[in-house]
Amino acid sequence: MSALKQPTIRVVAIIAEGVPESDTKQMIAYAKSNNKVVIGPATVGGIQAGAFKIGDTAGTIDNIIQCKLYRPGSVGFVTKSGGMSNELHNTIACATDGIYEGIAIGGDVFPGSTLSDHVLRFNNIPQVKMIVVLGEHGGRDEYSLVEALKQGKINKPVVAWVKSQVQLGHAGAMNGGEMESVQAKNQALKDAGVVVPTSYEALEGAIKETFQKLVEEGKITPVKEVPPPQLPEDLSTAIKKGKVRVPTHIISTISDERGMSVEQRYAGVLMSTLVEEGYGVGDVVLAIARICIMMCADHGPCASGAHNSIVAASAGKDLISSLVSGLLTIGPRFGGAIDDAARYFKDAYDRGLAPSEFMEDMKKKGIRVPGIGHRVKRGDKRVELLQRYARENFPSVEYVEYAVQVETYTLSKANNLILNIDGVIASLFLDLLNGTGMFTKQEIDDIVEIGYLNGLFVLARSTGLIGHTSDQKRLKQPLYCHPWEDVLYTK
Ligand SMILES: *[C@@H]1O[C@H](CO)[C@@H](O)[C@H](O)[C@H]1NC(C)=O
């Protein structure tokens, strides 16, 4: 009743059995005066083929496909008995181009909507070309259909049969009496112009004949067969069968922690293997990366990153915040020159520019060459060590040598224009990427482009920044930097 009173709900189907008749009568009265429809109580529901079904009507998807209920046909069908509706779905599918809509009104004495209500409704649906009715002995519902026919309210062909043997003892089938006998009902329907076969077994033939007559008369163009829509398989079942993969949100080529009990792997090697067999950090990180990390770990407290971390720590910030405030300064003036140096050196060397041409070109563009120049003058120990490592271990050192030639040229201009640590790491990694033969030209360009090499500096400098942060926190001294260099150095 609450559902019926909702302004947006027009049809209510009641599957429940045993609804008190007085309640049903109230609902019927309300529905009638408000232009709404009640299907049931005690109905299995209904189906609009290819569109919608109520409850368990028509059963499994296999049955729906078998009975062609996945697309609309030309037949409107109404029955009292839900138990018989599946049977008739199948019969109609065999005899015609299929059902447009099928309704089971339910077996109660006072159905919310009657056989004739639905027949009249079907009569107004243009897609419905003929109507099939399956009645039941007992009740008087079929007589209201006879009335409607006699009054000429129905102009579409109706095929009907009133069945005597009821599978389930419907309340509506229990009233006796001559008028309500099966023969009387079938006779009355026949007299009113309905196609009534001689037996239930002849029903299919009668439906088929009626349908074909309409086709011949041009009143029905049988609907075109369409392939049933493929229903997607249940995901969990399909995954179990190994038929599908769910899309990956994150792709990692370096480490792996799939599954609950699976141990992490680095490049396919179990983490425990690395620990048990005594491998060090250097085996996890590439040897050359390890050296770079060692060499870039710190630069003393004056460098931008260290300075920021110390200031943040002295302001009472936690370790992570202090570390991050230092890392945020990494960029073109602090550490972050590695990628830019790699870009410019690579571009110049690949284009075959002589060191002098390269430098003049940059000068013309007004770009300071990243990787060249430092406050300290010649003889940065780290630069020497890295170059020696490359010469001893790399298959080719073309970029390193080019960087050295560039340095020779710049030193002839000013004695502080040395190849700095950023410049040497940049050229070293260019040689490494090319020398391993594991990367295509495009991949090398991508690696340089994405800022990967600055990552080395981030990794290395984090160690130093954590050191400075903890040191400052241990000292517990507020920092007054006037001038900051003096304060920092004495600390
Ligand atoms: C890249 O490596 C190959 C093989 O080691 C070498 O022949 C080639 O000269 C290298 N190119 C550059 C630009 O370093």
Structure explained in plain terms:
The protein is of the alpha/beta class and 491 residues long. It has three domains: 11-216, Succinyl-CoA synthetase domains (Rossmann fold, 3-Layer(aba) Sandwich); 248-283, no CATH class; 338-453, Cytochrome P450-Terp, domain 2 (Cytochrome p450-Terp, domain 2). 47% of the residues lie in helices and 9% in strands. Helix 4 (82-95) crosses helix 8 (203-216), helix 13 runs parallel beside helix 21 and helix 16 (355-365) packs across helix 18. The chain starts with a helix and ends with a helix. Residues 486-491 have low confidence and may be disordered. The protein binds 2-acetamido-2-deoxy-beta-D-glucopyranose. The site of 2-acetamido-2-deoxy-beta-D-glucopyranose has 6 residues, from helix 18 and helix 19.
Question: How is the secondary structure organized here?
Answer:
Layout: H1 2-5, E1 11-13, H2 21-33, E2 37-39, E3 45-48, E4 52-53, H3 61-66, E5 75-79, H4 82-95, E6 99-104, H5 115-123, E7 130-136, H6 141-150, E8 158-163, H7 182-191, H8 203-216, H9 235-240, E9 255-256, E10 265-266, E11 269-270, H10 271-276, H11 281-284, H12 287-296, H13 304-314, H14 319-327, H15 337-350, H16 355-365, H17 381-393, H18 398-411, H19 421-435, H20 441-449, H21 452-475, H22 484-490
Parallel strand pairs: 1-2, 5-6, 5-7, 7-8
Antiparallel strand pairs: 3-4, 3-6, 9-10, 10-11
Helix pairs in contact: 4-8, 5-6, 12-21, 13-14, 13-21, 14-21, 15-19, 16-18, 17-19, 18-19
The structure holds 2-acetamido-2-deoxy-beta-D-glucopyranose.
